[in-house]
Design goal:
The protein is an alpha/beta fold. It has 2 domains: about 5-45 and about 290-400, Alpha-Beta Complex (Aspartate Aminotransferase, domain 1); about 50-290, Aspartate Aminotransferase, domain 2 (3-Layer(aba) Sandwich). About 40% of the residues lie in helices and about 15% in strands. The chain has helices at about 5-10, 15-30, 50-60, 70-85, 100-110, 130-135, 155-160, 185-195, 220-225, 255-265, 275-285, 290-310, 350-360, 385-400, and strands spanning about 35, 95-100, 120-125, 140-145, 165-170, 200-205, 230-235, 250-255, 325-330, 335-340, 360, 365, 375-380, 400. The strands form 4 sheets. A 7-stranded mixed beta sheet has the order 2-8-7-6-5-3-4, with helices on both faces. Helix 3 (about 50-60) crosses helix 11, helix 4 (about 70-85) packs parallel to helix 11 and helix 12 runs parallel beside helix 14 (about 385-400). The longest helix has 22 residues, at about 290-310. The chain is globular and about 60 Å long. About 50% of the residues are buried. Bound molecules: pyridoxal-5'-phosphate. Pyridoxal-5'-phosphate binds near residues 205, 207 and 245. Pyridoxal-5'-phosphate binds near residues 40, 126 and 205.
Length: about 400
């Protein structure tokens, strides 16, 4: 007899971005040249001073289990970061460190959801939110936030979606996959709605905080609505800002009871985050923040080039994102067109497959992020790749005939 899997795991979809990474890897291993715009991570390397801090930590013997909540030096550095970058005072006792922001989001839902509890997920959303909610017994309530409103949640839509079973609202700003950034006014309007519904907690995922462009400003909801402190989990991490995805360090700040419950889960799960990576993260947060600004400037140039090249392609429409490192491109203009092989492109998934086959360019389909017909293209890749990939996409689009 074979092993039966749990209902819990059967409910779970594999991560679309991890699946895309695997598929690109397989095509490349088979000898195909693929320009990869699926990447959800910086192509840049971790700055040298952070790597040096990790080596120093190893040499100093920081190679043991740490406190489950994280080493005091890192939690204090995180508290200093909150004050410096976000203008909020957070007691290090209310900070917890995990193996990436993803783990903390997972454990926060594991710690709070009972079967049938609802979590409001504005869409387009980061692929993992609905599945992390479902695997923990919750019900994701997807609220479409259309392009016409800048892919931002409106206070009216939020008010209408709240029920007695609502436990959480997730806000992700700057957002993956759209790059939408919530400004002070919109945050004030949304948090006002939450003021009227004290049973709803706020999870604010700020992992792209430092990647904002033009006149966009990152504002944490807690700065606008400090009264929510007792029901807000602020999630952030080292992955995107410091090009540290593989180090797996995320952190969160929240009410003591929730942080304690997450710590209880981590204690039975991973014990603690990697001790060496924690030391490196403390050095990163306390070190020269110029490296972060330099990376953001680099991404802005890449964004501008990608927007310029794709904006000139008939059938594609893309606004310039104000944050993160993705373009969420509207492909409605390609739907219904016919490929040279006679296939009619009916969905964004079909367009994604056409780009992979005909242009050798890997992108993500909008459906995976809850909105169609769109594609997500990452510009966290070299300018040379951006130029080659966009050229190939333009040529592939030019070969399409109207059906
Ligand atoms: N939140 C969002 C919106 C993301 O896009 C990602 C990674 O892609 C994460 C969280 C996870 O980050 P980490 O590497 O810290 O687990």
């Amino acid at each position: 007899m074979s092993i039966t899997l749990s209902e819990r795991v059967n409910r779970l979809k594999p991560s679309a971005s991890i699946a895309a990474k695997k598929r690109v890897g397989e095509l490349q291993a088979a000898g195909r040249h693929i320009v990869d715009f699926t990447l959800g991570e910086p192509d840049l390397d971790t700055p040298a001073f952070i790597v040096d801090a990790a080596i120093a930590a190893m040499r100093a013997g920081q190679t043991h289990y740490t406190a489950t909540q994280g080493i005091p030096a890192l939690r204090q550095a995180i508290a200093r970061k909150f004050l410096r970058d976000n203008g909020i005072e957070i007691d290090p006792a209310r900070v917890i460190v995990g193996n990436g922001a993803k783990q903390l989001i997972y454990e926060a839902f594991a710690a709070t959801l009972n079967p049938g509890d609802e979590v409001i997920v504005p869409s387009p959303y980061w692929v993992s939110y609905p599945d992390i909610v479902s695997v923990n017994g919750g019900r994701p309530v997807i609220l479409p936030c259309p392009e016409e409103d800048g892919f931002l949640l409106s206070p009216e839509a939020l008010e209408a979606a709240i029920t007695p079973k609502t436990r959480w609202l997730i806000l992700n700003s700057p957002g993956n996959p759209t790059g939408a950034v919530y400004g002070r006014e919109r945050l004030a309007a949304l948090t006002k709605v939450l003021d009227r519904h004290p049973h709803v907690a706020l999870m604010t995922d700020e992992i792209y905080e430092h990647l904002v462009y033009d006149d966009a400003e990152h504002v944490t909801p807690l700065k606008v609505a400090p009264q929510l402190a007792e029901r807000c989990l602020l999630v952030n991490g080292m992955s995107k800002a410091y090009a540290m995805t593989g180090w797996r360090i995320g952190y969160a700040a929240g009410p003591a009871a929730l942080v304690g419950a997450i710590a209880k889960l981590l204690g039975q799960n991973t014990t603690c985050a990697n001790s060496i990576a924690q030391a490196a993260a403390a050095a990163a947060l306390d070190g020269d923040q110029g490296v972060v600004a330099a990376m953001a400037a680099d991404y802005r140039n890449r964004r501008d080039r990608m927007v310029e090249m794709l904006g000139a392609v008939e059938g594609l429409r893309c606004a310039s994102p104000r944050g993160a490192f993705y373009l969420f491109v509207n492909v409605a203009g390609l739907i219904g067109r016919r490929t040279p092989e006679g296939v009619v492109l009916e969905t964004d998934l079909a367009v994604m497959e056409y780009f992979l086959d005909a242009a050798g360019v890997a992108v993500m389909d909008g459906a995976s992020y809850g909105m169609s017909p769109y594609l997500r293209l990452s510009f966290a890749t070299s300018l040379a790749d951006i130029e080659e990939g966009c050229r190939n996409i333009a040529q592939a689009c030019a070969r399409l005939a109207s059906a």
